[in-house]
Amino acid sequence: MEGLNYSRVSxxxxxGLTDSPELxxxxxxxxxxxxSMTMFGNCLILLTVLSTSHLHxxxxxxxxxxxxxxxxxxxxATPKTIVDFFEQRKTISFEGCVSQIFFLHLFTGTEIVLLxxxxxDRYIAICKPLHYSTIMSQRVCVGLVVTSWAVGFLHTISQxxxxxxxxxxxxxVIDNFFCDLPLVIQLACIDIYxxxxxxxxxxxxxxLVSFLLLLTSYIIVLITxxxxxxVGSSKALxxxxxxxxVVLMFFGPCIFIYVWPFTNCLVDKILSVFYTIFTPxxxxxxxxxxxxxxxxxxxxxxxxxxFSFGKTTxxxxxx
Length: 319
What we know:
The protein has helices at residues 21-51, 58-75, 78-84, 94-127, 132-135, 138-163, 181-185, 193-226, 231-259, 266-288, 292-310, and strands spanning 11-14, 91-93, 173-174. The chain is mainly α.
């Protein structure tokens, strides 16, 4: 850690989304609403899956882990961003900035592998239904989730191992509302061309290849579904279509930002908002609340809570 001594910058200045006071109030309201609903929706799904026995299947096990990751992804920067809307000078310490980069790549790397695992689950369920229970055992599902977190951790370490030792000796202004690696390494006092190529190869290319892999798997699944015209196939088509929408929303911004990492433009900010605020909010709506089993379980759970709170007057037998 001696390399950290070369950093002369103790904090970074975040320019945020806008300088307009009116727009900052608007964004404060929007971010607060979306963050609250994201945490509530994903937490509700997570608790519903855990407490409902007939939802203890591989698909819902993976979906509950997706909800957990989405809560984490939504929380690594959003609470600070909401507070910063009322700050005249938005700053973040060097350690805080590194932490945001660490958690951003940890959660996005984990989600990428988890989405691939979910597509594998749907592929087995639709293309090899007779072997589904054997292949997608509880041990395999736990292994897929553990692998997702392990890959996410290794990915974020590979991104930070060089960043920590970069000399930051002057510029400290980041044109965004949180610290992201392409913006931070541009502030280093050395030529970052080689590091930029490394970052593209490990983040941009990985996201692009993963997206193409997922696209291929869903095309195979959709072709298989097309050859089976039944109610079950229609349900599978609806599920796979919803899954692919989430994949497209998640990978689109990541690919754009990390394949072209050194383009300072408004589009980058919009895409950053999209995959840190909107995508975690939309995931529970698209993935689970369209599912009849989950909707029924959520209604039952909310109904039980309502009636348990509503029984304030004890009932006594009539003598």
